[in-house]
UniProtKB/TrEMBL annotation, chains A, B:
Residues 79-155 form the Acyl-CoA dehydrogenase/oxidase N-terminal domain. Pfam families: Acyl-CoA_dh_1, Acyl-CoA_dh_C, Acyl-CoA_dh_M, Acyl-CoA_dh_N. Signal peptide: none annotated. It comes from Roseovarius ramblicola. This is Acyl-CoA dehydrogenase C-terminal domain-containing protein. Keywords: FAD, Flavoprotein, Oxidoreductase. Residues 281-444 form the Acyl-CoA dehydrogenase/oxidase C-terminal domain. InterPro entries: Acyl-CoA_dh-like_C_dom, Acyl-CoA_Oxase/DH_mid-dom, Acyl-CoA_Oxase/DH_mid-dom_sf, AcylCo_DH-like_C, AcylCo_DH/oxidase_C, AcylCoA_DH/ox_N, AcylCoA_DH/ox_N_sf, AcylCoA_DH/oxidase_NM_dom_sf. Residues 461-588 form the Acetyl-CoA dehydrogenase-like C-terminal domain. Its cofactor is FAD. Residues 161-269 form the Acyl-CoA oxidase/dehydrogenase middle domain.
Length: 592, 592
């Protein structure tokens, strides 16, 4: 059975050596000193390894079962959920007045990576609750906050998000679910939603569905969509639960993975709902959830790559097969461990260098979220808004590929469910799809975010890179291995952006045909930047005579690998982008 | 439910327009005129679509069940197997004296692509039978051929290959299964084999296991391994079946995919076996099977990509979502079909251009097999031996990636088992692992094949490319879009080979660290070559005033896409290769 050890050392390095969190002028960050974050991370790591990880294969094997309208989650999930909720883990960054701990999002992100790595399907129950609570916090009335938030922070009630319908996912303007206004100010919601994660289950007393629906008479398309709170059980004035509302689970989907999470068809039959935010501005309110969920999905890509890598590494050290061509490393044994073989190294280094770069990128992104939300910093908000599709699309694509590499290390055993490696790939696969399929992320990035505010945000990104390069230009230790490759990669990204600017207005397809490559090109530059920042921090620690020399030297070697072997992918993406729309759009739809 | 339409038109194009098969001086090829191959392919296509494809999800859902030592295959498999056997499909290229049809391997390959695409798990029962029959044909005594081949050609008896043991897969020198010589010349086989595809089932009267085992007293390691024929039921002098032999299925593995094929743990408890080929030369005999199985695995990668693509294309045309940014294409409908979106096109073109290039590569490879076996052409044998790991590794890696792209087109529905797209990825995944994991293919390519006979075979490959370029150098229609990119890609491959030659002797790891990239670089050049050959054929047809203009124009556009957007990957692979061993091997095993 696979195991999981939380990467607390690496997280501490990023938080303190690289991002220097406790020195940042972001409200709440001063408290984030090394001891404090260490205590939180160690504790979260323990729960991940000891409670959540052992339940991961159980969830995969048993799945969720719908019987007589009730969904039974896998053995052990309820008890673990209670334990996680009691520990206050689900409300880490929610306000204290609702029972939260008001900690920065960055810490919640680090914890969420651990929980997700240990058990993605399980963690989704909390993750969606958190996202729904955030939307209510941002858009709810005082009364709505009062009614729902404390219960959700405590995970006594969980949350869901209901967007997709059978005939529309990405194109929500086609939505049919109706919300009929009632005399008491509430609405009657009628329609069917599909792919609702955690839609029905037996782990909480109530489920708070956030549902997109159309108020009759409103504008056509996406501009006529509103968001509603639809509780599974009606909530009485005193906060106690009343009658069952008119919402039910019609079916649990048979999926490729995340079997421990109940993915439901939800039927709304005149269910009572309450408007959240303004009429017809449902998408705006939903985007509070969506943005959080997108960053969360990116994190899942990283998380599955991490646990898959950990187990592949263990296997590569244990499994004896073949001999080192340069001379036996285990001469007394029947063969050398797999890890002596260069191609196994190549695979492990691909994984390791992606994971550590992605983690830094993720946590830098979380810092920007905090800077934006807690510090009301519009520039930070612009930057993270630009990078959200990159975090989502790039980290889930690459994260998935890494789980496939990790599975491959096991040879035939990787294909046998008993060994657990297949689950990591099957679970990781969903993150490329949900919260906006990655193609939609690329469209969001190139079609919307790139040109937003006259390209201000992407220019701010280039400024970040340029400033870093400038600040370190005299640093000979960094130059060849880190600064030069970063500069080259960033130049590719700029060339791609320029190509879009020059061609995109006249031929929108010239930009859109390259959108997916641009998302990956951007992702590589972000990881290149993070590796350069990490290398600087590692050099600084080594120069300061750190007692933990091995850690920092390993960090530098891993970074050099990324810059040498992964980052040059930017040139390929640029070549593809610069080939323009013609090769992609040459065929008529009928000609395929 | 997914559907399948055999790509007979494309196969005919490759066989006749590109490879010009009936004009080749290979025994048996003269018969392969257009009408004949068309008749065979149409008939095989019909069985694939109507019989095998509908059973594919059945096999996935039901799997195989072991009860009281008997394996029950999925509903309908036995009847379909009988139908396929009666049609003589499994013995297409076996000699007539054993009931085969003695057709060239190239035709069998085209048929196998169809069967595999329609139902990979099912087709493995025949595929392994064919591979085992080939080994007996090549290495068996007259009596062994007499005893087994007719029955196997008719699929009354099926075959298996038994290599892997729990503690060794790639490193077969560690094998423990013993073969004790008996007075009558037979052997008693004792040991455990794992991952035995089609190891036990209810579709045939007998199963002929080919088993690698060690004769006590023989040389250590791989040089002391011999190959044995171990029938499930003993075969009497008159060919009728006698007692059950001492071999049994201990367990069916729970796998990620190919659930319709029984992957068995096989226990040999003093089972009677007969030496096949020479003592201690088991690997040589097994490699007759292995080489065939490796090419077959590459074909499976292509085949799964094809069926996944076909269904993704249908979905992209049917599913209405969003609008074409350049103006509505379906103005009367609620939205435009997915296929209008450039990023969906990018995905479909990636798939289509890979598949058609891979199919041509595959069939060219099959031609070389025929030229080698039927024509006794040593140069052809050298070339196909060099390219076998490329066919296996590149086509299965890329084929898998294409199934993932195809699944992605479905959005959320791609993750739901009911839609069938998940099965294609799960089934395709195994082909990267079995018959030698792809890392082992890369090792075989760079560590063995490249330098074999002083690099003669790779030089022969470059000669093929150079000759093609030379023959067509005046062709302006081909130059920019096809010849120039092929030349550039081939130069990258040569540079990589040169790098290995200059560094590999001194630092073997410098070659091995780049082996995986080399395999992919080689694969791209092969597909680039095939696209250039296909483009030439398409131009010729258009100049000759073909009535099927649309087909050839589509072919050219698809080829241009490959050359522009896929082939430039060679530069990235070269950059990775030229970074050498240092980045890959920098860390001690303990430092990870």
């Amino acid at each position: 059975m696979p195991s999981y050890t939380a990467p607390t050392r690496d997280m501490q390095f990023i938080l303190h050596d690289v991002l220097d969190v406790s020195e940042q002028d972001i409200p709440g960050y001063a408290e984030l000193d090394r001891d404090f974050t260490s205590a939180v991370l160690e504790e979260a790591g323990k729960i991940s390894s000891e409670v959540l990880s052992p339940l991961n294969p159980v969830g995969d094997t048993e799945g969720c079962v719908l019987e007589n309208g009730v969904v039974r989650t896998p053995t052990g999930f309820k008890a673990a959920f209670d334990q996680v909720c009691e520990g206050g883990w689900t409300a880490l960054d929610l306000p204290e007045e609702y029972g939260g701990q008001d900690m920065p999002y960055i810490l919640g992100t680090a914890v969420a990576e651990m929980f997700s790595a240990a058990n993605q399907a399980f963690t989704m129950y909390q993750g969606l609750t958190h996202a729904a609570a955030s939307a209510i916090l941002a858009h709810g009335t005082d009364q709505q906050k009062e009614t729902y938030l404390s219960k959700m922070a405590a995970c006594e009630w969980t949350g869901t998000m209901n967007l997709t319908e059978p005939h529309c996912g990405t194109d929500l303007g086609m939505m049919r679910t109706r919300a009929e206004p009632q005399d008491d100010g509430s609405f009657k919601i009628t329609g069917q939603k599909i792919f609702i994660s955690s839609g029905e289950h037996d782990m909480a007393d109530n489920i708070i569905h956030l549902v997109l629906a159309r108020i009759p008479g409103g504008p056509e398309g996406i501009k006529g969509v509103s968001l509603f709170i639809v509780p599974k059980f009606m909530v009485k004035e005193d906060g106690s639960l009343g009658d069952r509302n008119g919402v039910s689970c019609g079916k649990i989907e048979e999926k490729m993975g995340i079997h421990g999470n109940s993915t439901c068809v939800m039927n709304y039959d005149g269910a009572t709902g309450y408007l959240l935010g303004q009429e017809h501005k449902g998408m705006r309110a939903m985007f509070t959830m969506m943005n959080e969920a997108r960053i969360g999905a990116g994190m899942q890509g990283l998380a599955q790559a991490e646990i898959a890598y950990q187990n592949a590494l263990t296997y590569a050290r244990d499994r004896l097969q073949g001999r080192d061509v340069t001379g036996a490393k285990n001469p007394d044994g029947p063969a050398d461990p797999l890890i002596v073989h260069p191609d196994i190294r190549r695979s492990l280094m691909d994984q390791k260098s992606f994971i550590e770069g992605a983690r830094a990128f993720m946590l830098w992104g979380a810092e920007l979220v905090d800077r934006s939300h807690r510090g009301n910093d519009a520039a930070a908000e612009g930057l993270i808004s630009l990078m959200t599709p990159v975090i989502k699309g790039f980290l889930t694509d690459e994260g998935y590929d890494m789980t496939v590499l990790a599975q491959q290390v096991y040879g035939g055993h990787g294909y046998i469910e008993e060994w657990g490696m297949s689950q990591f790939t099957r679970d990781a696969r969903i993150a490329m799809i949900y919260e906006g399929a990655n193609g939609v992320q690329a469209l969001d990035l190139v079609g919307r975010k790139l040109a937003q505010d006259s390209g201000k945000h992407v220019m701010a990104f280039f400024e970040v890179v340029k400033t870093f390069l400038k600040e370190n230009e005299g640093d000979e230790a960094l130059k060849k291995d880190f600064l030069d490759p970063l500069k080259a990669a960033s130049k590719d990204l700029q060339a791609a952006a320029t190509f879009f600017m020059q061609n995109g207005m006249k031929t929108p397809n010239a930009a859109l045909a390259g959108s997916y490559d641009f998302m990956h090109l951007f992702g590589h530059v972000c990881l290149g930047l993070m590796w350069a920042r990490m290398a600087r921090a590692a050099h600084a620690a080594l120069e300061a005579g750190t007692p933990d020399e091995a850690f920092y030297k390993t960090k530098l070697a891993t970074g050099r690998f990324y810059m040498k072997r992964r980052l040059p992918a930017t040139a390929l993406h640029l070549a593809r982008i610069e080939s323009g729309a013609e090769p992609v759009m040459a065929l008529d739809a009928e000609a395929f």
